[in-house]
Write a structure and sequence with these properties.
By secondary structure, the protein is an alpha+beta fold. It has a single domain, classed as Porin, CATH 2.40.160. It is about 15% helix and about 40% strand. The protein is elongated and about 110 Å long.
Length: about 550
């Protein structure tokens, strides 16, 4: 038998190889076990995180979002309701008590109160400003009684925002503003026609307006919106100058206690008929904290009181400060007024008694510049604004028979009232303090300054004037307002306010309280109007 002998060195070498191989295997096994434990722990952490996220998602989906006590903006006109729908952001889901269906929401506002005026005129049930809250030409005896739309204009509307592509939305808004005491659609030109041929002492309250009895007198527009590329809308919508007044007035939207809301001319670039544009296109876009907007109204054509208009806006928000700068040009701006008894007779004889009714009108081309700011410091908001309006004779004069919104007709156009440009400057400052989450106190001061723009009148044929003898003389308006608004229940608030106003010299011409006759020693007229009311919003 053959024997095989293995030497000692060979045995030692083999043993060493086996030992090293076993050690390497143990190290690899240890590494794999450590990695497995680490992955297992990560998996458990991710499982717990996923469960937590699913729990929070379910809670958010099943819990209604509470409405804030106040939006910070009174729903006074189209703009107040437009803001969430014109903003180039995704619309939030409706809260539980919103009247919404498939992205369309019904919304509204009802505002009714009582007012006292030491110098006023009888209530008009169709006028956009149904009482003379600001001292006016036909302000005479005292008034106490019902007063609709004190703090905000009543309206009903339907609006919607639907996603039509990835991050692209279709938007629309339809709004009708009305008098809640009579149920009538607001109709500024209709209120003027009611006072045709009447003396100042016989007249009711009235006011020119862009809301002239249309079905959707507040807004009627549609468009598309993108969070990146902005929002384009077309139809009947607020002028940019109107948006600025809405956003920067400390008593925003109050017909009774805000001069720049009651008059409407500040929001309309000089004439309240241009506060809402027909045939308009508007584009808005945000770039970081800066916003840009442009808007145009296109002329109806022919002998029409709807002229071309162009406005642009640049604004920003930074550390509690908001500012906007607006410039614009409005052609064939129209300021309407009642016909005298003689003019009524002449219009009838000339066969101009047509359409929904006839009015007299002053026509102008207006250039407007606005700047306004607000600053928030905790519960306090501070406001300030300035507007410069230049009125010039129109480059496209309107003739008798020119048609206006709502089917009304101009029978006595004045195309030569501004041989010398009229310059109107408007200033305002104020503040709003939230005493509690449901109680706001607001105070405001308004000032207007007019130059002497009629050269050559009966008492001063060669120079300027600063008396009450002519509406073209220089003059001023001053007003101070205070309002308290208490939101005592969901959707309801109770408010009280007062405004003192005074006009003098040219801005007081023709008033019952000054008589407007040459040599009259009274060159000013004033009034005050305390009131209160109840408002329901949804």
């Amino acid at each position: 038998m053959r024997k095989t002998f293995i030497s000692a060195p060979a045995i030692l070498s083999a043993t060493a190889v086996l030992v090293f191989a076993a050690a390497a295997h143990a190290d690899e096994l240890s590494d794999i076990q450590a990695q497995a434990r680490q992955l297992h722990e990560q998996n458990q952490a991710m499982t717990r995180r996923l469960a937590d996220l699913e729990k929070r998602q379910k809670a958010l989906e099943t819990t209604p979002v509470a409405k804030p006590a106040s939006s910070g903006i009174n729903p006074t006109d189209a703009m107040a309701a437009d803001l969430p729908y014109k903003a180039a952001v995704k619309a939030p889901a409706p809260v539980s008590d919103d009247l919404c269906w498939k992205g369309m929401c019904l919304y509204g506002n009802f505002d009714v109160g009582l007012s006292y005026q030491n110098h006023g005129a009888p209530l008009n049930n169709v006028a956009t400003t149904p009482l003379n809250w600001l001292v006016s030409k036909n302000s005479g005896g005292s008034y106490f009684g019902a007063s609709p739309n004190n703090l905000s204009t009543s309206f009903l509307g339907l609006r919607g925002k639907q996603e039509i592509a990835d991050n692209l939305y279709a938007v629309f808004n339809l709004q009708s503003q009305f008098n809640p005491l009579s149920g009538m659609n607001l109709n500024g030109l209709g209120s003027i026609v009611q006072n045709n041929g009447l003396s100042l002492a016989q007249q009711t309250a009235f006011g020119d307006s862009s809301k002239d009895g249309q079905m959707f007198n507040g807004a009627a527009y549609a468009g598309i919106s993108s969070p990146v590329y902005g929002t384009l809308t077309y139809g009947r919508q607020n002028a940019l100058s109107s948006d600025l007044v809405t956003n920067y007035d400390p008593i925003s939207g109050s017909n009774a206690w805000s001069v720049i809301t009651f008059q409407g001319a500040s929001g309309g670039g000089g004439d309240t008929a241009n506060r809402i544009y027909d045939n308009s296109f508007e584009y808005r876009v945000n770039v970081g904290p800066v916003r840009f907007a442009v808007e145009t109204q296109l002329r109806n054509g022919g002998n029409s009181g709807t002229g071309n208009a162009f406005e642009g806006d640049v604004g920003f928000d930074y550390l509690g400060l908001s500012m906007d700068f607006i410039g614009g040009k409005i052609y064939d701006a129209v300021s309407s007024s009642p016909l005298t008894a003689v003019q009524v007779t002449a219009a009838n004889a000339a066969g101009l008694a047509m359409g929904s009714g006839q009015v007299a009108a002053t026509i102008s081309d207006n250039t407007v510049f606005q700047v306004a700011a607000k600053y928030t410091i905790g519960p306090l908001k501070l406001f300030a604004g300035y507007e410069h309006i230049d009125f010039a004779n129109p480059t496209n004069p309107l003739g008798a028979g020119a048609f206006l919104e709502g089917g009304y007709v101009i029978t006595n156009p004045n195309n030569t009232n501004f041989t010398t440009d009229r310059i109107l400057q408007v200033f305002w400052v104020g503040g709003k303090y939230s005493v509690r989450s449901d109680l706001d106190l607001s105070v405001a001061y308004y000032h207007e300054l007019q130059n002497s723009f009629i050269i050559g009148n009966g008492s001063n044929p060669t120079g300027t004037c600063n008396t009450v003898v002519s509406a073209g003389c220089s003059g001023t308006l001053d007003a101070v307002s205070f309002v308290a608004d208490w939101r005592f229940a969901k959707h309801f608030d109770f408010y009280a306010g007062v405004m003192w106003s005074q006009v003098q010299n040219g801005l007081a011409n023709g008033f019952l309280l000054t008589n407007g006759t040459p040599g009259n020693t009274s060159n000013k007229a004033s009034a005050f109007d305390p009131g209160l009311g109840l408002r329901y919003q949804f």
